[in-house]
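Example record

One chain of 681 residues, shown exactly as stored in the release files.
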Amino acid sequence: MPKASTANESFKAFVSSETNRRLLLATSALVLAQLIIFKLLYPFADFFSDSYSYIFAASANLTVSIWPIGYSKFLSAFHAFTHSDTALVAFQYLLLEVSSMYFYLTLRYFYGLGDTTRKILYAFFFLNPLFLYLSNYVNSDPLFAALSLIWFTQLLWIINKPRVSQVLVQAVVLFLCFTIRNNAYYYPFISLVAFILSRQPLRAKLLGIISPLVLLIPFIVITRNAAKNMTAKSQFSLFTGWQLANNSLYMYGHIKADSSRFPSPQSRELNRLSQNFYRQMPSNFDAILSDYVANFFIRQPQSPLKVYFRRHYARGTELDDVVNWGKASIVYSDFGKTVIEHHPIEYLRYFVLVNTKNYFIPPLEKLEVYNLGEDEVNYQAQDWFDYKTSAVQSVSKDVQGKILFIFPYIFLFVNVLSLGSIIWYLISKTRTRIPRHLRRTVLLVSMFTFCNFLFCITATIIVLRYEFFPMLILLSFSLVFVDWLESSKEKASPGQLITNSQPPDTDLFGLHLSKSKNMKAPLHIFLILLLCACHRHDDRSSRTDLSPLPVFSILSLDSSTIFNTKQIPFGQPLLLVYFRPDCPHCRQEIVDLVQHMEILQNTKIYFLAGAKLEDIKAFCSRYQLNQYTNITVGKDFNHSFFRQFRPSSVPYLAIYDKEKRLVKIYDEQVPADRLITILHN
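Predicted structure tokens for this chain:
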């Protein structure tokens, strides 16, 4: 049975025990060793578009930007000490692991952990490649996750062993989270729940509830005033309007928007652009949208939002772009609110329902490939980190997608396990045997889970890096609840169930395997999933998931037309070629195919790449691919091909017959005559 520390034992004494001192030393060595090996494989930090926004806001010392300003302020402060990207990545990773250890030890201190649960949580927190890849980003994700872990750990202390000092600590940490990520919008409510559940006097509870507001309200006022100076209107986030308009456009093909309801000529113009856009879309456009991570209209250049933006706001300096983004957000906010308010049912059906699917299996998104598959970084990153050139390198651009592929399914599993353990708790006849402090924790975690779920599916995009912190909470407490519910079935006196004697640790990590035959099946399933993340067997000769041809979307070279594989007719064999413009083997493959094009004229050939559109265009022009009617060249703009086919190298070739059934896959350069033999047979 899981047992917590003794009631009289302080946390300091608990941590200072010989076993835990050895645990801390061994874990420190383990974490440092992983970091060193990782940076040898990935000597440069990882970047994507948000990284450059954060860097610019830091270099320009902005008070408000496209994204919450907290991470940019952190970058500025860190930059004052060192310009090293390695130091930044190391700091983010070590802070994340330190906060994880604080959380892990707190769980053991208050709730005790069964042997199998200790093993799983230790492996997940301190032997997890996701921590390293996330920390390698110049992005707010690792810092937000670390601070969120500290914040939630403080809430556990508030409901279990309250101290006056915790009021200030949780207020400061909550404030920092709020400045870094919009996902912290619901954190004040969770803190409110914790203080209500706390055993503190009423005065202390009120102080704890009010104290975060003392920091948050001035920050909100300052941010809104800075936005007003920049865009002529008060707004807390320069991104909110874009998100609202994007969300509302997901249902636009299924509603008739009344133009008279829009509050401004600008929003009425956007309505006309949106209607014209949907008239040009194929009948299966909903399938294309469902393939995306719920931000299609923010990302794609042909979307009404981007067309309106280009029409009304000229490109200028980086600061001009931020100002224009904020001005457009005002128009988009009016538009999005109007559409959603008048069509709430359609909003639930065509945006929230699609986003719910993403919630349970959140896409890896940017985590699939290093540096978006590019060999260079923006000049802002080069200047900020004092790189000698813009070139960056890594052991592999796409291996991380293969290593991390299991984590979306782990998130699905922990959601199911969490829901199951809560239902088990509610219907269990023995739940009264569970200690009161654990029952309070059940309520706190349930409220956190519900608020996170509701916020994510209704308001924002959902990707794995956004659900990283919730995954840690759900996993940890699902296992804690299962432990206690299992133990509550044992026939024991109340004194035994709430006794706080720490079981002896028999090995260094406290991870010894239990000899009990009552090992929980869900925990074993999780161990299997975790082991799968370490070894992924991908038998390409039996990829039944790729036959018939999966549905994915391709962005044409005109940057406005989206082609879906459902539009490919039956009757001709197909050759899919995934390439990289700078890959010499890809170039040789293309040359070989072009030389045999007369024989291949009855084969539909699709060349796909995840590179920049201008690089793909240059590649197409270099080999004059547009002169062949049987060739289509496009960009894997939302990584839907990459997610489904999981190419391990380039060139990557997939051959399909006339009925769109998979025939053969190659992940290497293949002579054209061999391909012709297979295609003709």
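Notes: Residues 491-520, 533-541 have pLDDT under 50 and may be disordered.
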